[in-house]
Amino acid sequence: MNLLLAYSALLLLAVLVSNLANRTILSTAALFLLAGFVLGDGVSGLIPLTPGDPVVATLAELALFAVLFTDGMRVGWTDLRHAWRLPGRALGWGLPLTLIITALTAHYLVGLGWIESLLIGAILAPTDPVFAAALVGNERVPPRLRQLLNVESGVNDGLALPFVMVFLAIAAGSADLHLGELALELGLGVLIGVAVPWAAIMLERTRWFSASHHYEPLNAVAIGLLVLALGKATHGNLFLAAFSAGITVATFGERQRESFEQFGELVAELLKLAALLVFGVLISPALLASVGWQGWLFAILALVLARPLAIWLSFLRSGLGTREVAAVMWFGPKGFASVVYALIVLNSAITAAEQVFTLVAVTIVLSILLHSSTDVVVARWFDDERETPAWHHTVRRVRAKLRGGRETGDPA
């Protein structure tokens, strides 16, 4: 009851301050995370949750399913073909390089084993589009930069997932026995994610079926629920099924995609905020104190070294300007997908589960606080009016009048 009450009150507060958050460093994600921390057992004890509580795993599962489904809908195959050059660098080079550099840092700085270090690298490699929203939605930001960040953040959650699952299986000591089963689970998830939406969309195109305008947004909802149910019934991987289903809908059902877009984003946002609240509850002062200076240094380096270095190497001779590359380097925030992957690890049987979760947790906390409070600032970096102050235009007009004409480039 306390969890529902807290979530409801925070959701109302987030709605009331959302306009302010879009213009300032205030972040609704940080609001839910910090509220969870204060309400958890480690501080006030108003929401007594433990990692083993069923609500933690269920909420994380549903939220990540919804997020991956909507992420997939942003990037149909047509979109990827038309805008693959720059996002391809970020995903094909930046993602694995970020994973490797993060893993090297975890191994040599913290002393984790190689598999656990690679697992942390895979968990922290994806980026979250929420914290780059001010850039993606700002028309003064170059379109290719906005498209790059949007496509990358929409795809990398799904691309990192198989690595997380494989490294987690190896860390659990099931490399010989269960990797074949894992491959079957992943493949079955992709098959369900492609087959169910394709069949549903083709069925609606026949002369016997047609969705009304009122029910059209529910079409994709029904597809998503059916994919979720079949994934659970067949033990296919739910998350790859969700991501594949989103891409399939975007590729073959443009009408379904458009009708679901706004509704789907809201559903995913509701679940994401709830998961962030639960994640905050699980982060106690004792957990933060147990990290040690190596853990905090790792978290800092994961944000200011791993992603920036990987992106800098990936975009050499790409044609992007210095400011654009700098923005992509900085906006590699660790957000919701990393939260859920960390919760999956925490509920696993691996020996280093708690240590992995702790390192990932402090990295995500720092990322949410730093990236969500700087997106508006970085977006203003591309504001032409801020690059060229008003007094500069005034001086140019005065000079032009003294010369008897208007200088080229002077605004009317």
Which key features would you list for this structure?
transmembrane; 412 residues; mainly alpha; 2 domains; 20 helices; transmembrane helix; cell membrane; Na+/H+ antiporter like fold; membrane
The first-level CATH class of the largest domain is given as Mainly Alpha
Number of contiguous helices: 20
Helix-strand string: HHHHHHHHHHHHHHHHHHHH
- Fraction of residues in β-strands: under 5%
Shape: globular
Helix/strand class: mainly alpha
Q: CATH topology of the largest domain, which one?
A: Na+/H+ antiporter like fold
**Assembly context of the chains:** single chain
For the record, give the distance between the C-alpha atoms at the N and C termini, rounded to a whole number: 61 Å
* Number of strand segments: 0
Protein name: Cation:proton antiporter
Domain Cation/H+ exchanger transmembrane: 12-374
Keywords: Antiport, Cell membrane, Ion transport, Membrane, Transmembrane, Transmembrane helix, Transport
Transmembrane segments: 29-47, 54-70, 90-110, 117-138, 158-175, 182-201, 221-249, 270-289, 295-316, 328-350, 356-378
